[in-house]
Structure to design on (313 residues):
């Protein structure tokens, strides 16, 4: 190394840069993801229109789990390992469970780290009212849409209603396909003064329509994203999670449980898998992982509000 460079200081600086990269990785919103729709008011909803599309492998949409919370002035987003296999160990799920078994103040903290659910699908944007104010127009392009359970209910109704539902037509880019019209209103203020997004008026168009000519549709379909690949690329870095938990003084809560989980995973890799009673497994899962959070003491933010704040970073 050059005489003009202090080797020890450069090594220290290198570690600082690595840590900075780790701390910002999970607050990054990829350009391929459609910006979360903004809500309107109780009197006037904001309206967006588009078409749900299958991905290149034919996947329609998938559910994923995540953890999102604030550390200092930064929001942290971690894709939960249970998105790929619900039997996977998750440090943040374990922390949530441990905290929930504590007193009322611990339960309030647990709510911040609890696992949340979202769905993801390819989305062709027909109309986004925000285009009128932005130079970077998104209408006419495909993005990944991470949508809440309230929207997924609308899709599930059409898929599962064999008599009156639209079925596969809700994913068809051709003349038999139907656009989805997202209407995001707002609820009235609750007892705490909170206002939540209201998707109740969202619905599929009454008329089918093609997204373009056959050539145009082919081009649209060639621009869809592989959902599995996207989720895999968003897998959380374990070392980063551990560092965050240590920073929050929470790692000791799950240190031993983590060791046991790693040892069990090694056993599975070696085909030395102990047998468990399925019924007792389900009871443990319900007790330690899917804990309720309606203690009435926590300040609640909807997933959309959390993601909206993340978009603004």
């Amino acid at each position: 190394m050059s005489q003009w460079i202090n080797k020890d200081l450069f090594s220290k600086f290198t570690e600082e840069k690595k840590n900075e990269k780790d701390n910002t990785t999970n607050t990054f919103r990829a350009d391929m993801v459609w910006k979360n729709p903004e809500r309107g008011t109780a009197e006037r909803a904001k309206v967006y229109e588009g078409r749900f599309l299958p991905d290149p492998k034919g996947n329609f949409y998938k559910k994923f789990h995540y953890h999102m919370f604030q550390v200092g002035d930064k929001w942290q987003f971690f894709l939960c390992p249970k998105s790929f296999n619900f039997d996977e160990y998750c440090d943040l799920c374990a922390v949530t469970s441990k905290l929930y078994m504590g007193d009322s103040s611990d339960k309030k903290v647990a709510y911040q780290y609890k696992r949340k659910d979202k769905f993801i699908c390819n989305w062709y944007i027909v109309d986004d009212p925000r285009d009128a104010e932005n130079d970077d127009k998104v209408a006419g392009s495909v993005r990944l849409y991470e949508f809440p359970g309230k929207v997924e209910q609308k899709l599930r109704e059409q898929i599962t209603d064999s008599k009156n539902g639209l079925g596969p037509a809700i994913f068809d880019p051709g003349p038999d396909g139907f656009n989805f019209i997202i209407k995001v209103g707002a609820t009235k203020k609750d007892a705490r003064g909170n206002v939540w997004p209201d998707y109740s008026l969202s619905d599929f168009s009454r008329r089918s329509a093609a997204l373009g000519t056959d050539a145009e549709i082919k081009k649209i379909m060639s621009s869809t994203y592989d959902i599995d690949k996207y989720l895999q690329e968003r897998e959380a870095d374990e070392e980063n999670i551990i560092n965050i938990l240590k920073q929050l003084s929470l790692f000791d809560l799950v240190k031993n449980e983590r060791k046991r989980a790693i040892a069990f995973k090694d056993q599975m890799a070696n085909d030395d898998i102990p047998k468990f009673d399925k019924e007792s497994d389900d009871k443990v899962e319900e007790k330690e992982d899917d804990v309720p959070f309606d203690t009435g003491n926590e300040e609640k933010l909807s997933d959309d509000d959390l993601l909206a704040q993340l978009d603004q970073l």
About this structure: The two ends are 38 Å apart (CA to CA). Strands lie at 46-53, 61-71, 74-79, 116-127, 142-147, 180-186, 197-198, 203-204.
